Amino acid sequence: MNSDSSMTAGAVRLLSRPLPAHAPAVPLPPPGRLLQVFTGAIAIGSTAAAVGAYYITLAASFPPGTLGQFLLVLGGLVVLSIIGTYAVHLRLSAALIAWLRRPGDGVALPAWRQAINYPAHLSLTVGLSALAVSLLVAGITAITTGDGDLGLHIAVGGTLAAILDAIFAWLYTDWATRSLRRAMAVRDPMLPVSGAGIVSLGLAAKMAIVIVGVSVVGSVVAGTLAYREAAHAIATGNPGSLALHLILVTATGLAVSLSGCLLVTRHTTEPLRELTTLVTELNPERYTQRGVPMSSDEVGKLMAAVNAMLGGLEERDFIKDAFSRYVTRQVSDVVLQGGLELGGELLTATILMADIRDFTSLSERMPPRQVVRVLNRYFTEMVDECMEHGGMIDKFIGDAIMVVFGAPVRQPPEQSALSAAKAALGMRRRLERLNVAFAADDLPALRIGIGVHTGEAIAGNIGAPQRLDYTLIGDVVNTAARIESACKELGCDLLVSDATRQLLGERARVGEARVVHLKGKALPTSVHPLLALE
């Protein structure tokens, strides 16, 4: 009934089953959340523009009547830049917004790429827009006033504002979209964090951008204001105000620089803590868990690598469990440890062969599905009993079962014989209970014959490189099968060979020895009905 081909097909179906899915545990934000993020980035940009304008008014002297014109032109160009930036925002988030409206079960890769790229792309757009506005205003002012130095002051102040704008817009959008990326990554922890279409910005680059950018802006502003206040102090003879302004400017620059660095380090330390917890608590029961990669920097790549490792461990554990349903755990361990070479080793083992009596005629009287159900219930009980005593289920041959004791995990011959004898007696007891259950279900009772023999055999991988089978080859296997067949003619349900009987010693209580001529054997063989173990 259980042919090798059907087992192979079943194994293919089992091993092709997808790995357990990771159900979403973090709710997705609404699509309107991206508009809020965009508004926050624009607010930061407007603040930076106001700071830049304030710096310009302090650092430069406007001709009478031109300051209002400057602010009016600046305001108009800022509005136009916001409109343009909004159009870019729609393009940068189109696939993401479409997916958020109808997320489905998985995560669309275009949506994920936009989610992970959005902070860098939007902050770059905001910074370039601010820079363009600054240069336009500087040019217009220089032309209308005829003052090149004033235009230069405006260009420098606008450039500084654009740098701050881009840096803090990036820090803000990265923080504001973090929950969105987390929710997406929880749905699919194996999403890519590098490769085509993904902006990769390393931790060193992030820190350099923030520290250098903010430091340069702070240094220029501090130097300019210090120079202005120094000139004012010399003119008025009051140096006290200069010291106060320097302290305020220095403190402000340090606060801005420190806040930027803290934001970057926070984005790094949070996922590292999560990853450390995941690895520290790692065990086979937690192989299904995954980290949540939310960035394209080294931390995100490390998280993705750990997820790939966990996926491999989970798959290996699944394959190991799947193998154990077709071969025993001992054999699956040998295979997964690389024991796939052809060949074998000589050892002494005990073979147990069991077969259902008159199963052919029994199966003719029952529907095929009922035959399979009866066989599965029978094999479940017999296999459990044999494995409890360390037996390796070598193969099923129709309604027969072959069990090996003493391989691949070696045992002394006395121990393998004792384990096989205990298993055989346990099979007899289980069959009695199983027949009671069969009677309650209006199913026929089963009778079995069991033969046990101990001897030398070659144990190892037999077959071809394309298809291996771990089994035992030798006369001990044939003899055990012939002893099992002799149960029918002798009217016994459990026979052990004389070799097994001697290994069992005084612990075995047996019936009268019987001499039988086994098929294929030139000399008669002595067998013993096994009654009990003491």
Folded structure, characterized:
This protein folds into three domains: 29-188, no CATH class; 191-326, no CATH class; 341-533, Nucleotide cyclase, GGDEF domain (Alpha-Beta Plaits), CATH 3.30.70. It is of the alpha+beta class and 534 residues long. Helix 14 crosses helix 16 (498-504). Strands 1, 2, 3, 4, 5, 6, 7, 8 and 9 form a nine-stranded mixed sheet that branches. It has helices spanning 4-15, 33-59, 66-92, 94-101, 109-145, 148-176, 178-187, 203-236, 240-280, 298-326, 329-336, 359-364, 368-388, 413-440, 475-490, 498-504; strands spanning 343-356, 392-397, 400-405, 448-464, 467-473, 494-497, 508-510, 514-516, 525-533. The chain has 16 helices and nine strands. The protein is rod-shaped and about 130 Å long.
Write out key terms for the chains shown:
single chain, 534 residues, alpha+beta, Alpha-Beta Plaits, 9-stranded mixed β-sheet, 16 helices, 64% helix, 13% strand, rod-shaped
The figure for the number of domains is 3
**Which CATH class of the largest domain?**
Alpha Beta
Radius of gyration: 40 Å
Amount of helix: 55-70%
CATH hierarchy: architecture of the largest domain: 2-Layer Sandwich
> In percent terms, what proportion of residues is strand?
5-15%
Write a concise synopsis of the structure shown.
With 534 residues, this protein is an alpha+beta fold. Helix content is 64%, strand content 13%.
